[in-house]
Structures are given as C-alpha cells and as structure tokens.
Amino acid sequence: MANKKINTIAIFSVFVAIVMLQTFIPCLGYIRFFPALPAITTLPLTVTVFGILMGPKMGGFLGFFWGTLSLFRAYTQPADLVSIMLFQNAVIAIIPRFLAGVVPGLIGKLWQQRHSTRNYLISVAAGVASTLTNTLMVILFTSIFYNHSSKLMSCLGYADTSKSLIIVLLIALSFNSACEAIFTGILTPLIVVPLKKVLSKRL
Predict the structure, then answer these.
(1) Do 192 and 53 form a contact (C-beta atoms < 8 A)?
(2) Kind plus residue range of the DSSP H or E element containing 40
(3) Cα angle for residues 174, 24, 5 (degrees, 5° grid)
(4) Which residues touch 95 (CB under 8 Å, ≥6 apart)?
(5) CA dist 110 to 56, 123, 126, Å?
C-alpha cells in the first residue's frame, strides 16, 4: 500500500512538471494561430492521459492545477484581450480544466485489458470528451458572466451586440476545439495503451 502511494505521488509529480512546462514554454502547451483569440492548447492531452491512468479523482487534481496555472498566466503573461477577460475569472479558468481531468478518468473506468480494440476506442473517446468538456464549459461560464459584455463581443469581432454570446463563442472557438479534439483523440491511445500496461504491474 505504501509503495502504491509513493508511486502515485511520483507519477502525479511528473505530470505536474509536464503541465508546468507546457504552460510556460512558448508554443509547447499553447499554440497561437489567431492573435485575437485564445491559443490552441495541447494540455488536454496531458490531463486526459493522466485521468485515464490514475482515475477521475487524480485527474481532477491535475485539471485543477492546470486551471490554477491558467488563472496565474492570465494575470502574469496575458497574450490577448479575450484571454485576459476570460481567464482572469477564477470560475472560467479553473472549473472547466478540473472537469477536463475528471471526465477522462470516468471514461477510463470502462477500460478492459482483454479487449484491445475497445481500449483504443475508449482512450479516443476520453481524449475528445476531455477537450470538448473544457471548451464547452468555458463557453457556458463565459456566456453566464459576460452575457451583455459589448467589450468581449467587440474583441471577438462582432459589433452587433444583439447576437447571442454563446453562439458567437461557439463559432469563434470552433476551430480551436476541433484542432484540440483531433490532436488529443489521435495521440491519447498512442500514449495511454503502452503506459497502461506498464503501470498496471506497478500500481
């Protein structure tokens, strides 16, 4: 039992370090295509892999850590006005990231070692679900907190503030979300399947 706890802490520490590197090293965790919009992030991949391997509780811890770093980064290294407005709000910065770690952990519970094809599909689904959870929760909370913000609408390129903010956000972030979902969905099984086999012998 003690060895299992030590191994869990060690693995968590490794993933925390990876999240920190992705957060603060340019173009590693955040890739910017459109200057006015939030960057495409590769961090859902890291959180998804960890959530599948370690379960929803630990996945939530890593997601919470990612969200806290997002909040910190929005205050110390803001890259665009939209990110400042969104991620300087603790709810928008932290809760979607937390859930992005919990969801793949819950899906990962369906994992069955005996069915390799099912394992592959489960890991793909977990990767896509984690990414969409993060994006959709950011959109949901933004529409709640900034529903009548003409400044945010203007930053998104919409002078007509009569439009629904949630629809505008879905349109504006659709490219980001699609890229993140494809990236995470493809790479998750390639990383998780071999790691799962190794860790199953140690945890």
Answers:
(1) yes
(2) strand 40-41
(3) 95
(4) 67, 137, 141
(5) 12, 10, 10
pLDDT of residue 193: 86
If you count them, how many residues does the chain have? 203
User: DSSP character for 38?
Assistant: P
Q: What is the pLDDT of residues 43-61, one digit of tens each?
A: 999 999 999 999 999 999 9
* Alpha-carbon span 161 to 168, nearest angstrom: 10
Find the helix or strand (DSSP H, E) in which 66 lies.
Answer: helix 56-76
**pLDDT, tens only, 147-175:** 766 667 666 666 665 667 777 778 778 88
Q: How far is CA 196 from CA 11, 67, 74, 77, in A?
A: 13, 25, 34, 35
Confidence of residue 143 (pLDDT cuts 50, 70, 90): confident
pLDDT at 71 over 80: yes
Do 130 and 101 meet the contact criterion of CB atoms below 8 Å apart?
yes
3-state helix/strand/coil string of 82-114: HHHHHHCCHHHHHHHHHHHHHHHHHHHCCCCCC
Residue 55, both tokens? 């379960």
Query: CA separation (Å) from 32 to 28, 37, 39, 190?
Result: 10, 8, 4, 25
